[in-house]
Amino acid sequence: IGHTANLHVVASLLQGTKNYRMLGYQSEKVTRAYVEGNREGQKWLLTFCDDHGVPVQLRDAVTYASSADQRSALDRELRATRAVGLDTRLVDSLDVPFPQYGGVVLTDQVQLDPLDVLAALVEQIRSHGGSVHQRRRVVKVSYAGDRTVTLEDGTSLRAEHVVLATGSPILDRGLYFAKLEAQRSYVLSFEAPDDVIPDAMYLSAGTPSRSVRDAPRNNGRLLLVGGNGHGVGRTSSERVQVDDLREWTARHFPGAVETHAWSAQDYRSHDSFPYVGALPRGGGRVFVATGFDKWGMASGVMAGRSISAQILDQPPSWQRVMGRRVTRPSGMAHVVLTNAKVGLAATRSAAAGELQTAPEKPADGEGKVGRRGIVPTGVATVDGETCAVRAICTHLGGVLTWNDNERTWDCPLHGSRFKADGAVIEGPAVRDLHRLNEGA
């Protein structure tokens, strides 16, 4: 998207209703350790930004009830946040133009442009003798002796330690793909009168999710509206989700003019805590960081500090507590539910492929799934070019669905995504789709 989209993100210790949800899966001690790790991550981020001239904005974070039946969720989150050491308060009414029934508030939380932070980090890496490489996909990591990292062009690199921070890990050791839920959500930015743009960061306590906040720019502020999260490849139309956000904004912010729209992909773990630490059977030299559940700014810094400390054999106390967590039966039940959803998605996507054989050339920007003989086939036309691919995910064989908003092939099983021509976008898949004769 680039800086012109004012892609701002939140680094907050109040994370919707996440604290209450975590307490349902883990003890108060483990949940408090997560909060302390996030607090340290947020503090480090603020210090880094201050030292390197990266603009940040302090805002109140608000988890609000968008309907009367969400009010009980606020009460639960208030108790949960106070139990783990957050100085939250409950308010009965909010000065906003959209429906609300009060909110939980935590002051002085952080929003910033992650691309500004990334640019500063890259500069620091290079100034200390490191190097940064882009568009070089890793497809394999060996575990014998020093770690050997293999790139898609066959190049091999050797390293004493390897960190996999790839959304969903590209290695199946640890079976993280079976314990993560891949989610997509959407954000739109709007020009609007400054007096109607909220001064806090709002996130609804229930569904459909709504995130409302501002993004500074040179001549004022933009309004950001997000939400409508869903499982990857598991909605009939991504475009409908985006249009719903547009309609909601037009209803509550009349006259707002859209400037940009984009989407994001995030991963939630089975117990809502991120997976941070050594990869199972990785020889203690391969580390993983995933499952940030849309809260990766503070949690991502937490993960980086945790892994670097583990490599130096100096793990912080909160990491030792999180690393020894034992999942309650509710967490294991969530794993079962997650994989039941995968099974249902596999059945539905396979059935969809039976509805049509040898799909005709679709309209521009569209894609269709059918079958050529017994082979699930995806045909898409994007920017006037028609491509036909074997519509089977190269990770574990899920039948792909067409994303009509991003114009991609998405896997409803574990969240892998591919361009219309079959090129892999993100994993756990690392191989492109097999291309068929075009115009099939």
* Estimated structural class: alpha+beta
Principal-axis shape equals globular
Q: What is the beta-strand fraction? A: 25-35%
How many helices? The count is 8
Major beta-sheet overview: 9 strands, mixed
Mean pLDDT: 89
Give the C-alpha Rg. Answer: 22 Å
**Percent in helix:** 25-40%
Q: Could you give the count of β-strands?
A: 23
- Give the distance, in angstroms, between the N- and C-terminal Cα atoms: 33 Å
Low-confidence stretches: 1-5
What does this structure look like?
With 440 residues, the protein is of the alpha+beta class. It has 8 helices and 23 strands. It has helices at residues 18-23, 28-51, 71-83, 114-127, 238-252, 296-311, 317-323, 329-354, and strands at 9-11, 56-64, 89-91, 103-112, 138-142, 147-151, 156-159, 162-164, 181-191, 201-204, 210-217, 220-231, 257-268, 275-278, 286-290, 366-372, 375-382, 385-390, 401-403, 408-410, 417-419, 424-426, 435-436. Helix 2 crosses helix 6 (296-311) and helix 2 (28-51) packs across helix 7 (317-323). The longest helix is centred in the last third of the chain and has 26 residues, at 329-354. The chain is globular and about 60 Å long.
Key traits:
8 helices; 9-stranded mixed beta sheet; alpha+beta; 23 strands; globular
Q: In a few lines, what is going on in this structure?
A:
The protein is of the alpha+beta class and 440 residues long. The chain has helices spanning 18-23, 28-51, 71-83, 114-127, 238-252, 296-311, 317-323, 329-354; strands at residues 9-11, 56-64, 89-91, 103-112, 138-142, 147-151, 156-159, 162-164, 181-191, 201-204, 210-217, 220-231, 257-268, 275-278, 286-290, 366-372, 375-382, 385-390, 401-403, 408-410, 417-419, 424-426, 435-436.
